[in-house]
Amino acid sequence: MTNHDFVPRGAASLRVDYDGPPRDFYFLLVPRLTLLAFSAALEPLRIANQVAGKELYRWYLMTEDGAPVRCSCGVTLTPDAGLSDVPRDARAFVCSGVEPARHNSARIAAWVSRQKAFGGRVGGICTGAFALARAGMLKGRRFTLHWENQPAFVEQYLDLPPTGRLFENDDGLLTCGGGSAATDMMLSLIEGDHGAEMAAIVADMCLHQRSGAPDTAQRSAHSRALSSRNPHLLAAIQFMSETLETPADIDEVAARTDISRRQLERLFRQHVGQSPVQFYMDLRVSRAHALLNETSLSVAEIAAATGFASSSQLSHRFRKRYGRAPGAYRKSWTALAGG
User: Fold this and answer.
1) Tens of pLDDT along 218-269?
2) Which of 79, 142, 309, 328 is buried most deeply by CB count within 10 Å?
3) b vs e for 110-124, b when ≥16 Cβ sit within 10 Å of the residue's Cβ?
4) Which residue from 248, 244, 286 is spatially nearest to 264, judged by alpha carbons?
């Protein structure tokens, strides 16, 4: 592995009475990983060293073949090495991003399985859970990945339901939803290693407001995005989100939220600017869009997974929203990606 300067200079400091060996982290960078999620995991380790003025942590980068890897934003990262076994007392993370199914290789899954077999600890950042699932690590475990990629994940791994939380720590199996959730996850480790004061200083150095709990949802989505805390509206949206494959009629949605249909329609008009019927349809078409991009499911299978009676029915709605039929849309992206 390449030699690093793991302890940069800085103004902030904290006395840390720890003279043990540093904890090592290995980041396996998958093509098209999200740079934000990776850096959000790495920087807290660097800052902890800087604040302590000593090597509390060390980190190393790997790629499947040892070659540089291109992030989803176009930035290229150079690894320290290709795939290799990591020490049993180290932690490893699969750092993935967009198009996770496409880059979920058998070789990476075999590497994950090998680390697990020898007592290693491998987690997932952003969409790293795809590799963990292929390696058989997630059955019966609590885990998460970025909310945008969860529909595609669930279609591929029907018996592995992810949570919608920022990060999960299931008896040492660490996963997070990416973005700044990676910082929350690493701060929890730093706090466990070196105390709450150290974690607080690192968070301040990152200008990061900690979520307060690992079970914080990735999306208070429906409340923040709609600028509403109305419990009936949020319950309706939650019910709609859970029934995309078998859509309910609006009377049933209203009944599930303990209000009349007329009240429900008024809430949607007031806070969303759409009728509940329109909003429900948009949710289904958006899910179809996600599955089209993130899975190899046929258009007919996607139609079934989003509650449409036929491919043509989906195509009509999809074209209205995105300007072209699902098949043509997928071909355009395939051509853009070079096959």
Assistant:
1) 764 454 445 567 889 989 998 998 999 999 999 999 999 999 999 999 999 8
2) 79
3) ebbbebbeeebbbbb
4) 248
Q: Is the pLDDT of residue 24 over 50?
A: yes
Task: Provide the pLDDT for residue 207.
Answer: 92
Strand 91-95 relative to strand 23-29, pairing: parallel
How many Cα neighbours within 13 Å face the side chain of 13?
9
- Residues, the chain: 339
Q: E-strand spans in the chain?
A: 23-29, 57-62, 69-70, 76-77, 91-95, 121-125, 167-170, 173-176
> Would you list the DSSP string of 77-103?
E--SBSS----TTSEEEEE-BSSTTTT
Q: Are 302 and 274 in contact (CB under 8 A)?
A: no
Residues 6+ apart with CB under 8 A from 196: none
In angstroms, the CA 208 to CA 180 distance is 8
Q: How far apart are CA 265 and CA 167, in angstroms?
A: 35
pLDDT tens across 133-149, in order?
999 999 999 999 998 89
